[in-house]
Amino acid sequence: MSNPSIVLKEKGKIVLENRPVPDLTDERSVKIAVKKTGICGSDVHYYLHGNCGTFVVKAPMVLGHESSGVIAEVGRLVTNVKVGDKVAIEPGVPSRYSEEYKNGRYNLCPDMAFAATPPYDGTLARYYIMPEDFVYKLPDHVSLEEGALVEPLSVAVHAAKRAGIKYNSNVAVFGAGPVGLLTAGAARALGAANVLVVDIFDTKLELAKNIGATHTYNSLKKGNFDEEIIKLIGDRPDIVLEASGADIAMNNGLNLLKTGGVFVQIGMGKDDVKLPVAQMTQREIDYRGSSRYSQGDYNDAVTMIANGKIDVKQLITHRFKFKDAKTAYDNIIQNGKDVVKTIIDGPEDELAKL
Ligand SMILES: [Zn+2]
Q1: 41: three-class secondary structure by DSSP
Q2: For 200, phi and psi rounded to 5 degrees?
Q3: Whole-angstrom Cα distance, residue 346 to residue 180?
């Protein structure tokens, strides 16, 4: 196989397939040999349901978008990186002519080409092509596995910046999945005084403490939710970051939030959710959405890891070989509770001989 790729043929069907090696046709682009890829909830959603939000899989699509790799070839005008460099891949390229790109909020560009979002192929292949300014060189002491985790960490950094975290911020994060955990870590790294994580699994709350949470709370516990949390962090949080997407967490978060506070929605749940709008209006709650990442977020995430501000490696609970990628997805569906982050290796050499 010249370019082994993990392809979602249709809903419920993942295959290992050979695809043509992509050509480097642009002088400012690079060809990356993909080495590590994290599995994201969106990939699993495409596998199970054939869609994710409004994006529908209509043709076979290569999966994966949380990747790192090594530069294998560079275009004639590339100056950012050279062959052999370890890089993290930022997997969405906006239109360079869009209003959003010019305004510095390129994650909102309607013409974004994003890996493993139909109709664009993902990164679970031997080779992937990117413009040179959408790959980020990793320092020598940062591993390729950490490089793959730059993607979800950038989601967290973006959300934490949307919240406007300051040195004395009192922060509550709802949901201790990978993004919630990383959001807690990013909030702490950006200087928040208190970061409390709420979830229903004690094992995930334990992990939250290791990654930067100053306090945790299991919401299945009996007692008055608001009072218990105020007891822990001294006051109502002035920032709530919602990373679970569950209606009840959104409502609990909004009720808990301090008057005049900021609420950032990161998790994606149902399209239509009932929220206490009158209360939000009267208490001047800033309700903000947060989507993927934008200007500066990838650089900040790489720097946070490089400077030891957050230990992202702790999130990795499962590792699979490239040829076992389908098993990696099935394992998440069957044993989701025990999985935090799964990493799939780049194609092993033996596949090249097939
Ligand atoms: Zn992702």
Answers
A1: helix
A2: -105, -5
A3: 27
C-alpha of residue 277 to centroid of ligand 1, in Å: 30
pLDDT over 70, % of the chain: 100
Short-list 176, 183, 129, CA closest to 153: 183
| Cα 266 to middle of ligand 1, angstroms | 12
Q: Where are the alpha helices (DSSP H) in the chain?
A: 41-49, 99-102, 144-148, 150-163, 178-189, 202-211, 225-233, 247-256, 277-282, 297-306, 325-335, 349-352
Domains of the chain from N-terminus onward = 4-148+311-352 (3.90.180.10), 156-289 (3.40.50.720)
Q: Tokens 């709008």 identify what position?
A: 277
155: CA distance to ligand 1 center in Å? 8
Kindly tell me if the per-residue pLDDT of 114 is higher than 80. Answer: yes
CA 73 to ligand 1 centroid distance, Å: 26
Q: How far is the CA of 40 from the centre of ligand 1 (A)?
A: 4
Contact 124, 344 (CB under 8 A): yes
Whether 328 and 37 have beta carbons less than 8 Å apart is answered as no
Which pTM does this prediction carry?
A: 0.96
For residue range 215-264, what is the model confidence (pLDDT) as tens digits?
Answer: 999 999 989 999 999 999 999 999 999 999 999 999 999 999 999 999 99
**Cβ neighbours of residue 37 under 8 Å, at least 6 residues apart?**
64, 66, 67, 123, 124, 148, 343, 344, 346
% of the chain residues with pLDDT over 90: 93
Beta carbons within 8 Å of 137's beta carbon, 6+ residues apart: 80, 81, 85, 86, 87
Ligand 1: distance of its center to the CA of 39 in Å?
7
**Cα-to-centroid distance, 354 and ligand 1 (Å):** 30
Q: pLDDT of 7-17, one tens digit each?
A: 999 999 999 99
What confidence tens digit (pLDDT) does each residue in 43-62 have? 999 999 999 888 999 999 99
H runs (alpha helix) in 225-306:
225-233, 247-256, 277-282, 297-306
d(CA 349, CA 323): 11
